[in-house]
Amino acid sequence: MKKIIYILTLLTVGFLSAQKPQKIAYIDMEYILESIPAYKKAQKKLDNKVAAWRKEIDKEASIIAGMKSALHNEKILLTEDLISEQKESIEFKEIELNKKKATYFGEEGSLFILRQQLVKPIQNDVYNAIQRIVKRKKYDFVIDRSSDLVLLHANPKYDISKTVIAYITKSIKEQEMEEVKEKKAKAKEALKKRINDQQKRRVQKEKRIIRR
């Protein structure tokens, strides 16, 4: 399937190239994301959460395995009712464990939701940066070499990964500067309010003195 996609891509690019010159670039999405501190921080938080969930699941799975082993070893000493009761208990725990797995790792489980919250916004920033660069540089194609598309050879001069990283880093710095400006503006406003309140209290105090 990968080869078919690759061949079709080459044929398409070749056909279009016959019509007019094509401007092509490529990126390494994995490299870009790993170069963004916010992504690494989010991924670490995600990995820690996944590790905690897996530990919880493994613990419960170990308990179930122990119950099965105990039943197997003691089966000869138990009555049919007790065997049936323990089997039901094991089946109930297995059902609960499967539910927990689905809750954590299901299609729209906790992992999916947490990834959307932590990682998706950063991925969106990357995609937006790429779109702006594409628009500015007027690229016809931008290929992700870390995707499933087979890229047999790529000239480094067409790699715009570092350009994307620089764009995002600049955007982050601009956002940080904007946040600093907002904090300074709020601090200035708060100081102004305190001065006005002090002046009002002083005026009121002077009025009370005059009345006496």
Q: Can you put this structure into words, describing what you see?
A:
The protein is 78% helix and 4% strand. The protein contains 7 helices and 2 strands. Strands 1-2 form a two-stranded parallel ribbon. 6% of the residues are buried.
How does the SSE layout of this entry go?
Layout: H1 2-19, E1 24-27, H2 29-34, H3 37-74, H4 80-105, H5 110-118, H6 120-137, E2 141-144, H7 161-211
Parallel strand pairs: 1-2
Write down the secondary-structure element order.
HEHHHHHEH
How would you state the average pLDDT, rounded? 83
Q: What is the total number of structural domains?
A: 1
Helix content class: over 70%
Count of alpha and pi helical runs? 7
Question: Features of this protein?
Answer:
7 helices, 4% strand, 2 strands, 212 residues, mainly alpha, two-stranded parallel sheet, disordered N terminus
Provide a compact summary of the structure.
By secondary structure, the protein is mainly α. It has helices at 2-19, 29-34, 37-74, 80-105, 110-118, 120-137, 161-211, and strands at 24-27, 141-144.
